[in-house]
Amino acid sequence: MTPYLIPCLNACGADAWEVTETLTEGWEFYFIRHALDQHRVRHVTHTVVKVYKKSEDGTMLGSASSEIHETAGEEETRGLLSRLLFQASLVRNPVFALHDPKPVESLEVPAADVASMARDFLETMQQVPETGGENINSYEIFVSLKTRHFMNSNGIDLTETTPDSMMEVVVNARSEGHEIELYRSYTSGTCDRENLLKDITDTLRFGRDRLHTVPTPPITQAPLILSTSAAVDVYRYFAERMSAAMKYRRLSDWEIGQKVSEAPLTVEAVRTLPNSSGNHAFDLEGAPVRDLILIENGTARAFWGGQQYGGYLGLKDAFVADNFSVRGGTETEEELRSGNWLEVVEFSDFQVDPMTGDIAGEIRLAYWHDGETTTIVSGGSVSGNMRETPLRFSAETRQYDTFLIPALTRLETMHVTGIDPN
Question: What's the whole-model pTM score?
Answer without folding.
Answer: 0.95
